[in-house]
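Input structure tokens:
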């Protein structure tokens, strides 16, 4: 904090934080003690002046707590007589005046907008002008303190006697300030006498309550919400309070799910979500029992729920939401004319629906089977407890609450703490209207204390939180509409999602909990492969491919099938109980077609790129030639290739999962534009008749590599084409291993030395004794393209 500024007596001392100020030039007497210095500091609620030391709650020092000033700085004036204080005040500052009258003292806190005058008689007047009359009249309003009345500080011996206002004042040096005036329930007749004031018309006060699907408006009329839309509970010119509804255990009953406060502009709203989460324009707020103020709204949170206080010029609204019910306590002239479900109950639901907070199709109503286990007579008896002690001591009419309780429980059942919620809101309504505490009602009705059991518990968008039987622990349960599509198929999750070479299966977290299954104990064939919970959707997903998590790969003539199983067991902590779980998941993929790729060996060189599609398989094939075994020197259009030079050819697939799928090169052969054919690869193996052909890699990864020495067909000047045939297979298939298959042909290669310039030799190709190719002429400057 900055160092306090000490100046001579009669001048100004400025401070902006906790400060110790010297007043020895003008000592102050406070409660019989004289002080020559005092201490100033501020808290979140008060501006504090102490004598003897800085303020601390419960401390030993004498202190004055006053309303905190608007500005962040203050100044101390020690004014001489007949001095106009405000002439020396810095702009936009708050000033603190201490005035000593011997054994009596006065404290005055004011801003530069308040000008004060201290005359020679020792009376300090606010307003900047000296009042008329020998004893003065009250000036403009200021902050009250020990000898300050309506902005006027009176010196010892001063008296005021005003019949018009019935005010008698005597400032006695021995007795202090004595004031006589009309009481708070009286009014002055203008002749010095007081009479009893006529009773004031009380401000309208009303309570609106929502429990489950039941809305009890300020007129004590009930309405049931049977869909899953959002509705305005209260509509005022610059305030709208909206309730959102969702189904829970039944499709035909809507339940209160959240509250939204929209203030002034439509883009400013505070959302009260289940679990006690508060969002300001979708940003989560961190709250505790200490209230926070945002956009003129005071928000606080404790173990029982969230409270919001909103004040407008003609309306004060207090909103309490605990995740299952909301109660609005309304006060002010605007209450009788309020719109929304809480106010005007004669309109239709559609008239107060809020589309901006409702989902498409939310108004659709669903039917559900009657729950034969519900005894409506028994439900009515449980609700009629509101007619008995201690509820009977409340002057709030219980009939609307009993009717709502009976109608909802007869359809929904006494689950999710619903009965106790109706009793709870009635008890709170009694407390708000008359202050009745209704001691002991919870033990009599067998209801737990009002602790938000689902507070800070986050469930998915298709779940709601409720306590479970018999342990009473909070749990996320499935909403009826969401669960119905799975229950109708007698499954705990969706269908297997098959992709090109992988699969996944998602189980519904809340359905697993309903069955008492702990998802962390589930795994695939490989125990290391476990499901992952999505915290947003609460879905548990298991993923695998053909070569992971113990997947079984099966083959038939048209499809490749890979299969896995979700399995596991639960062991309870109290007894040895095993719940077996077994769920198969499989994908059938169409066998990928055999693909061929070809390129020319003379003329201009370019890498061959070919897109391949076969059923669900989509990938790219490339064929490229290199002059080195490391496949780093690709053959370009400018590369000069010599006869008998070794060339490496790579066939590669792109867009496939190499850990799952491998490529098998089945065969490769060279042709010219005519009928000449020379086979290099047959059934995945090198042509045994040509020892220059070598298979470097095949059936191991997503690429295959082979090499051979350059040649050309004799008596052929056209392009030489290389064609390869390949297939895809899963790693676990036996067909991934290249085999010779049919017997390889017998090839004989004969090389002759020429007698003259020209070709360097002749190669004749035979197969089984038959001439397949004609003379092959060597070319000294052959190019690959």
């Amino acid at each position: 904090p900055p160092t306090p500024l000490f100046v001579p007596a009669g001048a100004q001392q400025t401070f902006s934080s906790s400060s110790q100020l010297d007043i020895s030039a003008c000592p102050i007497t406070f409660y019989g003690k004289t002080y020559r210095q005092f201490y100033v500091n501020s808290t979140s609620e008060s501006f504090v002046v102490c004598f003897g030391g800085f303020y601390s709650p419960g401390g030993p020092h004498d202190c004055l707590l006053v309303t905190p000033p608007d500005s962040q700085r203050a100044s101390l004036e020690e004014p001489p007589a007949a001095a106009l204080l405000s002439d020396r005040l810095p702009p936009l500052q708050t000033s603190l005046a201490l005035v000593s009258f011997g054994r009596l003292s006065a404290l005055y806190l004011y801003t530069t907008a308040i000008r004060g005058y201290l005359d020679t008689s020792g009376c300090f007047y606010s307003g900047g002008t000296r009042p008329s009359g020998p004893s003065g009249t009250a000036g403009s309003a200021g902050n009250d303190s020990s000898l300050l009345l309506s902005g006027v500080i009176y010196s010892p011996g001063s008296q005021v006697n005003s019949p018009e206002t019935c005010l008698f004042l005597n400032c006695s040096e021995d007795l202090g300030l004595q004031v006589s005036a009309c009481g708070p329930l009286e009014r002055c007749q203008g002749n010095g006498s007081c009479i009893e004031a006529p009773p004031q018309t009380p401000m309208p006060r009303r309570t609106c309550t929502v429990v489950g699907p039941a809305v009890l408006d300020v007129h004590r009329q009930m309405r049931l919400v049977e869909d899953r839309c959002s509705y305005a509970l209260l509509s005022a010119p610059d305030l709208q309070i909206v309730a959102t509804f969702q189904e829970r255990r039944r499709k035909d009953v809507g339940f209160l799910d959240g509250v939204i406060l929209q203030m002034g502009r439509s883009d400013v709203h505070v959302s009260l979500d289940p679990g006690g989460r508060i969002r300001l324009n979708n940003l989560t707020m961190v709250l505790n029992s200490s209230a926070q103020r945002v956009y003129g709204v005071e928000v606080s949170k404790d173990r029982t729920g969230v409270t919001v206080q909103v004040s407008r010029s003609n309306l004060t609204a207090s909103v309490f939401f605990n995740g299952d019910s909301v109660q609005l306590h309304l006060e002010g002239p605007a209450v009788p004319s309020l719109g929304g479900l809480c106010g005007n109950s004669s309109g239709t639901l559609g008239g107060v629906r809020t589309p901006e907070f409702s989902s498409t199709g939310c108004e659709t109503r669903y039917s559900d089977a009657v729950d034969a286990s519900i005894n409506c007579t028994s439900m009515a008896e449980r609700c009629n407890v509101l007619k008995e002690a201690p509820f009977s001591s409340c002057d709030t009419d219980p009939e609307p609450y009993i009717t709502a309780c009976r109608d909802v429980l007869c359809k929904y059942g006494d689950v999710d703490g619903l009965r106790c919620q109706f009793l709870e809101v009635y008890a709170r309504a009694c407390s708000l209207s008359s202050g009745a505490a209704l001691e002991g009602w919870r033990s009599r009705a067998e209801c737990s204390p009002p602790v938000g059991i689902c507070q800070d518990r986050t469930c998915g968008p298709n779940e709601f939180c409720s306590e479970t039987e018999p342990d009473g622990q909070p749990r996320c349960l499935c909403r009826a509409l969401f669960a119905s599509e799975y229950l109708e198929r007698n499954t705990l999750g969706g269908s297997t999602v098959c992709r090109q070479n992988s699969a996944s299966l998602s189980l519904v977290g809340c359905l697993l909990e309903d069955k008492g299954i702990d998802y962390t104990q589930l795994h695939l064939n490989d125990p290391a492969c476990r499901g992952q919970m999505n915290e947003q959707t609460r879905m548990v997903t298991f993923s695998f491919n053909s070569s992971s998590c113990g997947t079984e790969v099966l083959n038939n003539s048209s499809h490749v099938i890979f299969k896995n199983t979700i399995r596991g067991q639960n062991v309870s902590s109290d007894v040895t109980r095993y719940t077996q779980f077994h769920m198969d998941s499989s994908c059938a993929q169409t066998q990928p077609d055999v693909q061929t790729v070809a390129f020319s060996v003379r003329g201009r060189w370019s890498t061959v790129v070919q897109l391949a599609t076969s059923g669900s398989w989509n990938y790219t094939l490339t064929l490229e030639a290199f002059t080195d075994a490391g496949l780093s020197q690709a053959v370009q259009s400018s590369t000069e290739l010599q006869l008998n030079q070794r060339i490496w050819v790579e066939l590669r697939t792109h867009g496939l999962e190499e850990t799952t799928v491998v490529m098998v090169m089945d065969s490769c052969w060279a042709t010219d534009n005519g009928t000449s054919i020379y086979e290099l690869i047959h059934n995945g193996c090198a042509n045994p008749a040509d020892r220059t052909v070598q298979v470097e890699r095949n059936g191991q990864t997503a690429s295959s590599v082979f090499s051979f020495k350059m040649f050309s067909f004799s008596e052929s000047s056209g392009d030489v084409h290389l064609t390869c045939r390949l297939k895809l297979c899963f790693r676990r298939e036996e067909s991934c291993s290249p085999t010779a298959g049919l017997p390889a042909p017998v090839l004989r290669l004969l090389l002759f030395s020429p007698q003259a310039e020209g070709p360097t030799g002749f190669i004749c190709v035979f197969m089984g004794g038959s001439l397949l190719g004609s003379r092959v002429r060597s070319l000294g400057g052959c190019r690959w393209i």
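The CA atoms of residues 586 and 683 lie 31 Å apart. The longest strand covers residues 559-571.
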